């Protein structure tokens, strides 16, 4: 006998804040009446930490600090054992998003080594011969907006061969001068990162100018920690040998889920940076790094 189980939330965007009610319905569709041994619903918020391959085996103490951290967990019985009539059945539910003790609901974040996820899971127990049914549904939690006003701090930058830090042979680097500014490095997550860049001169033709958004995830404890930087997105802002002296706009929208307000806790940190990358025709790669502080207002 075919039966489908689904979780439908009332909010189409599935975004909730701490203290709100997660409400919706459990939808059951079956052709004939269905016998079951109870329907339960579980809400769980977890932080999953993972060590990168370079950190495995380095610190013994790490293995205790990378266990999943439970932020919230609650369970309710939606329906007692009984029979569900044929056709479409909707069972409403409500869960308050309240933490126990001094725990904080961090914002939903999908990273590489740090994952913060909130899920609803519905289980329907059935007799021995019939398979139990289960359905999961992720919802998104946004952290509470900060009260303080964000004052943008513009950053002016100049990139020349002399400002480069990690160049092995400075004499081999062609001469160039790039000026620019970022309108703010303490950014509001819902607003784009903006600024401009001007190539004043360059001895070697430019191949491409790119903006690279990077996540810096730190997992660990007092004995030591593993810090890993990985790319989230890369946007090309100029192609080919651009006109010298012409302002090139910098504009980057922060992607949902893969980014969250800058977060620092005892076991992990999530930070963000942006790189301005200039690729020259002789394949020299010039990168200028700017740490970002993200917040929600």
Automatic annotation (TrEMBL):
Belongs to the VPS26 family. GO terms for biological process: intracellular protein transport. Pfam families: Vps26 (PF03643). Component of the commander complex that is essential for endosomal recycling of transmembrane cargos; the commander complex is composed of the CCC subcomplex and the retriever subcomplex. Component of the retriever complex, which is a heterotrimeric complex related to retromer cargo-selective complex (CSC) and essential for retromer-independent retrieval and recycling of numerous cargos such as integrin alpha-5/beta-1 (ITGA5:ITGB1). The recruitment of the retriever complex to the endosomal membrane involves CCC and WASH complexes. The gene is vps26c. Keywords: Endosome. GO terms for cellular component: endosome. Signal peptide: none annotated. The keyword Hydrolase does not apply. It is found in: Endosome. This is Vacuolar protein sorting-associated protein 26C. The keyword Acetylation does not apply. Coiled coil: none annotated. InterPro entries: Arrestin-like_C, Vps26-related. Component of the commander complex that is essential for endosomal recycling of transmembrane cargos; the commander complex is composed of the CCC subcomplex and the retriever subcomplex. Component of the heterotrimeric retriever complex consisting of VPS26C, VPS29 and VPS35L; within the complex interacts with VPS35L. Interacts with SNX17 (via C-terminus); the interaction is direct and associates SNX17 with the retriever complex. Interacts with SNX31; the interaction is direct. PANTHER family: VACUOLAR PROTEIN SORTING 26 RELATED.
């Amino acid at each position: 006998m075919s039966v489908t189980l689904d979780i439908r939330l009332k909010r189409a965007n599935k975004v909730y804040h701490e203290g709100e009610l997660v409400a919706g319905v459990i939808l059951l569709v079956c052709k004939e009446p269905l016998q079951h041994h109870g329907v339960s619903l579980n809400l769980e918020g977890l932080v999953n930490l993972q060590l990168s391959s370079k950190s495995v085996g380095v610190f013994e103490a790490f293995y205790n600090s990378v266990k999943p951290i439970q932020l919230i967990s609650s369970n309710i019985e939606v329906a007692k054992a009984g029979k569900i009539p044929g056709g479409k059945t909707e069972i409403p539910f409500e869960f308050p998003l309240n933490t126990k003790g001094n725990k904080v609901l961090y914002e939903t974040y999908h990273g590489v080594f740090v994952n913060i996820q909130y899920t609803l899971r519905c289980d329907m127990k059935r007799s021995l011969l019939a398979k139990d049914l289960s359905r999961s549904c992720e919802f998104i939690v946004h952290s509470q907006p900060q009260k303080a006003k964000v004052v943008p701090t513009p950053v002016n930058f100049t990139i020349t061969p002399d400002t480069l830090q990690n160049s092995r042979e400075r004499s081999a680097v062609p001469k160039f001068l790039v000026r620019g500014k970022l309108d703010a490095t303490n950014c509001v997550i819902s607003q784009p990162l903006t600024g401009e860049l001007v190539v004043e001169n360059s001895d070697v033709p430019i191949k491409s100018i790119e903006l690279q958004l990077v996540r810096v995830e730190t997992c660990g404890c007092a004995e030591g920690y593993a810090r890993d930087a990985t790319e989230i997105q890369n946007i090309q802002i100029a192609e080919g040998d651009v006109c010298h002296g012409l302002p090139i706009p910098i504009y980057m929208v922060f992607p949902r889920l893969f980014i969250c307000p800058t977060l620092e806790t005892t076991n992990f940190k999530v930070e963000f940076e942006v790189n301005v990358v200039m690729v020259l025709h002789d394949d020299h790669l010039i990168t200028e790094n700017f740490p970002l502080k993200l917040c929600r207002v």
